[in-house]
Write a structure and sequence with these properties.
Strand order of the largest sheet: 2-4-3-11-12-13-10-15-14
Helix content: 25-40%
Number of helices: 12
Shape: globular
Largest sheet: 9 strands, mixed
């Protein structure tokens, strides 16, 4: 997103990507395209004639007997990591794919765009004029140094650059994990399809909950039957438990701290979870778990928010690299989009760097606390929820008063 926004202002942009291939299949992750994401795409996406999301009409909460406990209208556009990745690549450097076979024609005033793969950043520092970046070429196995006028760090929730420049920031495990998977609509029973009815659906269990929504299928297909049912199932799991150690250990015996990737889960771990699903989840949810062939798991954690600007504005942290949220609020892509839109305003001279950082940090702090509050409600208990909610509201009020208006709680 940032590469597109900066390129459209006429600047030359190079993205250093650690992965060695443009093909990024198997990212079984749904994305809710919220207000900032939609605004970014409305402004910058040149493929507007190609739809990218499933329109989910409402949210329903089901009890164990599949009766609706609560339903409210909240239309949301549900997309996927694959769909947005290939769409953004088409807009950034013209990558053609099965998701975007026709790439857009760019205006004449845009800068050059390069997507440099197989490059890992080992270190960086600023001199009087530029930022110097030490790059490890993973293909040619060589190390070089390149310079840039402006660096934007967006190297994921497990950001190595954040650890390099802000080693004092602490990660803390939240005490629960998220099991994730997708299943094609056509592979489940009619009963299961009718239960979800193209709605965002939640069911609470003892010590957790599961949420499901429909996302585009292979090659971005929006055809009913070819779309994917995407779910996230949260379960409590102590960090020092044997269960946690086993769940986060991959097929090669390596233990992961944040996310165990797709294709790395040991069969006995998933078989155990399938049995748990049939014990605690209503049948339609259990069927989804049972039919999942490529599950993955993430340990939910928190990290402090510190600063977004370094080297006098020559380096900015954005998106998950600035601060990741717990996934309950589905705001990671929204944060990246907001940050990109604000970077565009700053580079265009429409706001100061101080204003950019204040708005970025305000959103990051408030949304992080909101995501913690969500987790406390379902995973911990009422007392923890109310304490977290008070912190969230206090933060919002403090931001509102500082920014010149009063935040009223309705």
């Amino acid at each position: 997103m940032h590469g597109i926004a900066v390129k459209r202002l006429g600047h030359d942009v190079t993205i250093l990507e650690q992965h060695q291939s443009s093909t990024r299949e198997g990212q079984a992750a749904g994305i809710v395209t919220m207000e900032h994401s939609q605004k970014f795409l409305d402004h910058h996406d040149l493929l507007k004639d190609q739809p990218y999301a499933v329109n989910c009409s409402s949210v329903q909460i089901l009890d164990k007997n599949l009766k609706i406990k609560l339903e409210f209208q909240r239309p949301m556009l549900m997309s996927s990591w694959n769909v947005l990745y290939y769409r953004l690549r088409a807009n950034f450097d013209g990558l053609a794919s099965s998701y975007c076979s026709q790439t857009p024609a760019e205006p004449s005033h845009v800068g050059r765009a390069a997507y440099d793969q197989g490059k890992r950043v080992n270190n960086l520092y600023a001199d009087e004029q530029k930022v110097q970046i030490e790059v490890d070429d993973l293909v040619n196995r060589s190390i070089s140094t390149i310079s840039a006028d402006q660096v934007i760090v967006a190297d994921s929730s497990a950001s190595q650059m954040r650890h390099l420049l802000q080693p004092q920031l602490k990660h803390s495990y939240a005490g629960y994990v998220a099991w994730r998977g997708t299943v094609m609509e056509s592979s489940v029973s009619d009963e299961t399809r009718s239960t979800f009815q193209n709605k965002t659906t939640l069911h609470a269990t003892s010590g957790g909950y599961i949420v499901l929504y429909t996302i585009p299928g292979e090659n971005g297909s929006l055809e009913p039957g070819k779309r994917l049912l995407n779910y996230v199932w949260y379960t409590n799991m102590a960090a020092d438990s044997a269960e946690f150690q086993q769940a986060m250990t991959d097929t090669a015996g390596r233990q992961h701290h944040h996310t165990l990737p797709i294709g790395k889960m040991r069969s006995q771990v998933w078989e155990t979870q399938r049995k748990v699903a049939h014990e605690v989840l209503p049948q339609p949810f259990a069927e989804l778990v049972d039919r999942t062939t490529q599950p993955f798991i993430s340990a939910i954690s928190d990290i402090e928010v510190s600063q977004a600007v370094f080297f006098g504005g020559k380096l900015l942290f954005v998106g998950d690299a600035l601060v990741p949220f717990r996934p309950h609020v589905a705001c990671s892509t929204n944060q990246a989009a907001l940050n990109a839109l604000l970077v565009e305003q700053w580079l265009a001279g429409k706001m100061t760097l101080a204003s950019w950082e204040r708005q970025v940090l305000d959103y990051a702090n408030a949304t992080r606390l909101r995501s913690v509050t969500w987790g406390c409600w379902y995973q911990v208990g009422y007392l923890s929820f109310f304490a977290s909610k008070v912190r969230h509201l206090a933060t919002l009020c403090g931001q509102s008063l500082r920014n010149g208006y009063i935040y009223l709680v309705g």
